[in-house]
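Example 3.2
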Amino acid sequence: MNNSSEALRRETASAVLIDTAGRLLLQQRDDIPGILYPGMVGLFGGHREGNETFLECVVREVHEEVSYFVPPEQFEYLAERRGVDPAVEGGIIYGHVFVARDIPSDKRVITEGSLLIISPEELSRIESSLAPSAQLALKALRSGLI
């Protein structure tokens, strides 16, 4: 792949975090210009760096964003995101989405956005606010894939 097409390809890893009470720990994104999906509800995660795997990426990103280390073996693969990148004109996105369960929700220090804790039964009230990766992940969870 040449540099111009590499610039148009985003590779990401993100995770649905589920706390010890079965509630979803989601990211309420900051509502500021210049970030992807401002003000929307998303997953914790981010872009791959260097040669790291998607799993290594999600472990690093979750640790950075929620100030809690989730070991790699606690993440379960949930879904793949591949296709046109709505955030980059002419771009494509490729990502893996994971789920990690039994995450303590107390005393989390969130470094990007804020923590939104929601029960699965309450998802319908925020559905219109979900960023694309969160839509994909929550649809997969509801489908009983995990």
